[in-house]
Amino acid sequence: MNNQSRRDFISSVTLGGGLLINEAIQAETDLSEKDWIDAHVHVWSQDRSTYPISSNFEGKDIDPPIYSPDDLEADQKGTGVTRTLLIQMSFFEFDNSYMVDVIKSDPDRYQGVAIIDHEQPGTVDVMTSLKASGVRGFRLYAFPDKVKKWDASSGLQTMWKAGAETGQAMCCLTDPAAIPAVNAMCKKYPDTKVVIDHFARIGVTGSIDQGQLDQLLALADFPNVYVKTSAFYALGKKAPPYTDLGPMIKQLRDAYGSERLMWASDCPYQVQGEHSYAASVDLITKKLDFLSEGDIDNMMRGTAEGLFFS
User: Fold this and answer.
1) Tens of pLDDT, residues 26-66
2) What is the pTM of this model?
3) How many whole angstroms separate alpha carbon 280 and alpha carbon 271?
4) How many domains does the chain have?
5) CB 298 within 8 A of CB 261
6) Residue range 249-288, pLDDT digits in tens
7) Which of 136, 137, 151, 238 has its CA 20 to 30 A from that of 37?
8) Taking a C-beta distance cutoff of 8 angstroms, is the pair 110, 289 a contact?
9) Both 20 and 80 in a single domain?
10) Quick one: 95 and 9 in the same domain?
11) Phi and psi (nearest 5°) for 44?
């Protein structure tokens, strides 16, 4: 295309196709007004002097080497997601300072879920102090080898009890095998809000086990239990558009109601290889015809807003 042809083309688009341009601009504006919330993102810095990793992770591969708030905002651009719940990165362990500093930089945009050592004294004081810094919940590694120690841990029991008093959720990264232990804690502390991350990792083997899903569905009997529909890259067929996860999401919607489900990306892992941020958003907002507009609004904004941003 020569320069004159290019000018003629631009002119025709401007004059004759202006409506299309305006529609595209309007669509982007409409998305920005959605104010959707990503309920699960990890960020970290390469500044090891200010934010050192735990000695337990020294020498271990950190991949990607950095995922910053700027990286996240670039991935979120144009998707309608404007707020984010940060999840403490494992290799910082109990030093939540980087996450807290990110929250302080823009508390309207960020809130957080911390990791604390509940075996140390002063658990409730630590929880209360972190709440003042924007921490709305605490990550628990609810794996079979860990949950078998829960009953004997006075610190953990204190933490679950205090969560009801401070309004901070117990956010469980769990395997299907540990769901019964979570169920037992929900019975013991029914007033404590509990969030199950990543569908309890049902489907990580490549297929959805209905027996495992039934255990997760049973947790819906506890009105303070919530589930993150997230980490699509890691579950089922592990390939966009992720619609094979639709039947599991439908069963969860029917059991919990969309007001107890929330979408999350699990970035930066959702933006590796063939996976993308937009594909994760699109599964909930465009690909599942059984979700009503109200369901979509709950899962993309309302549930996480009520739990973590109010």
Assistant:
1) 555 566 679 999 999 999 998 999 999 999 998 788 899 99
2) 0.90
3) 9
4) 2
5) yes
6) 999 999 999 999 999 999 999 999 999 999 999 999 999 9
7) 238
8) no
9) no
10) no
11) -155, 165
